[in-house]
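User: Before I run my own analysis I want an independent prediction to cross-check against. Here's the chain; please return only the structure tokens and, at the end, one sentence I can use as a sanity check.
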Amino acid sequence: MKNKNFVFQTITMVCLTIGLVLAAPAPTRASSHMDAPLITLDPAANTTDVYAFRTDANGQQYLSVALAVYPFEEPGVGPNKYNFDDAVLYQIHVATGADVAAGQATLTYGFQFTTSYKNVNTILQSYLGAVENVDDANQNLTQKYTVTKTVNSSKAATTLFTNVVVPPNNQGLLTRYYNQNDNGEFPAKEGVALSSSLDRYTSQTIPTNATGYQVFAGQRDDGFYADIQSIFDLDFMFSGPNKPFDSQGGFNVHTIVLNIPVSELGGIQQVVGVYATTERQRVQVLRKAKVKKTSPQNSGNFVQVGRQGNPLFNEALVAIKDKDLYNRTLPTTDSTNFKNYALNPELAAALGLDASHTTNRTDIAGIFIPDLIKTDLSTGPARLAGGQNAGAPPAAPNDPGFSRLSVFGGDALHSTAQTGFFNNGTVPGGWPNGRRFGDDVLDIAVLALESDLRNPASPTLASAPADPGVDKVDHNDIGYNKVFPYAATPLNGRSHEHHN
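Assistant: Structure tokens:
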């Protein structure tokens, strides 16, 4: 019994130590990226955002999905850099058919990373000099990854990609091709409209396999924008700062993006569901220092530590007592565990809405329960956000008709797979029909709470506010790409600002 207690105490201390180490690089900020208490101690496994939207490219129809992790990466930090964690299993799940309503993944795409160094006998951890091409002699730290597809009903697994290289982080002078005029002193390049206009490092790390899948994984700008600070100041009317306050402005994240051929999912006449998880092996032991064997030893089956579906659900609707439970459970249990939070949203009361908006919100439950991003594939490609500059290529203005407020801003699509609003197939152009880079999800969520969508045949839509909108933040700090991988260029450590 004494030995068992000693082992338990040792494992407990190891877990606490690991949590403190993992938490150390993450600055304390107001954040929608700190959804639950335990996951804040594990930034490499902390899911910040999930995206899912319909695109067409290269003669293919795609479901484009993305998972971002590692909140609040300060651009240019050193000497150690933010990277994907070799010990984390990153997964993007897709539900089709009856699995959508059940919250059950039909297909699971897994991403596992390995890290290596060209030279460990140096203090120059990531770069030995300016990186001219991905994984050249000057990119000392290199990550590579494997992508697998699992059909969950049969457990049949297929390897889609192996040894795909992760591009370097945007350091500045040493990674000049990320930045305007290919100059490391300048800010990061704005989004582009053509694949041929992507920066060198990004374009060199987008493989396509024989069945049409495309993948990318690397550092990107944090594509979420909102005045989260006001929410945590309990200023739900966003009446505080006169200047828009983008709490995520100026920070990067690590992002995985996957283009899934719609043919792999059974065609376009359907609504699919998307969510993501992160997992770690059950046991981690810190080993006594020995030459070349000081890294932790991981063993046991993988256990889910993080989950993300629709934006804001766990953070803004789920009570404290259940936030960690959300991250450890699957969407199949959402109806039992979390439905009441969507039916009777506390946030609606905090916004000062009347009783008709705070109880029996079956429309809000329809969005969040089960917590999958429901994406209509029959609409044709979604309209995309581009750069803030509407000039000549490579600048990428928003697609005509795009609105960051989705259907509340007049951005709607026509579905042939569901009746939609007004029984005429009208569905939102963005979230909560999928989620695009550029969707102003905080404003959309507030407008949805102020609306009454319980009768889709005759919905009451709240009026979209004049810009800059609900929280006074109406754009990201850098323009998105309108081509794969869609997420914006990672910000330059030598030239960036916070809270634009």
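Sanity check: The chain has twelve helices and 13 strands.
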